[in-house]
Amino acid sequence: MESYTQTDLERLVTQIRRDIVRMVHACSSGHPGGSLGCTELLATLYFKHMKTKAPVFDMDGIGEDLFFLSNGHISPVWYSVLARKGYFEESELATFRQINSRLQGHPATAEHLPGIRIASGSLGQGLSAAIGAAQAKKLNQDPQLVFCLMGDGELQEGQVWEAAMYAAAKKINNLVAVVDWNGQQIDGSTEEVCDPGDLEAKWKAFGWEVLVLENGNSVPDVDKTLSTAKSLTGKEKPVVILMKTEMGHGVDFMMGSHAWHGKAPNDEQLASALEQNPETLGDY
Amino acid sequence: MSILDKFPIRDQKDTRSGFGEALLELGKSNPKVVGLTADLTGSLQMGAFAKAFPDRFFQVGIAEANMMGMAAGLTIGGYIPFTGTFANFSTGRVYDQIRQSIAYSGKNVKICASHAGLTLGEDGATHQILEDIGMMRMLPGMTVVVPADFEQTKQATLAIAQHQGPVYLRFGRPKWPVFIPESVPFELGKIQRLVEGSDITLAACGHMVWKSLEAAEVLRERGIAAEVLNVHTIKPFDEEGLLRSLEKTGAVVSVEEHNRYGGLGEAIAQTLAIRKPCPQEFVAVQDTFGESGKPADLLKKYGLDVPQIVAAAETAVRRKA
Question: Which of A146, A148, A166, A170 to mutate to test the interface with B (most CBs of B within 10 A)?
Answer without folding.
Answer: A166
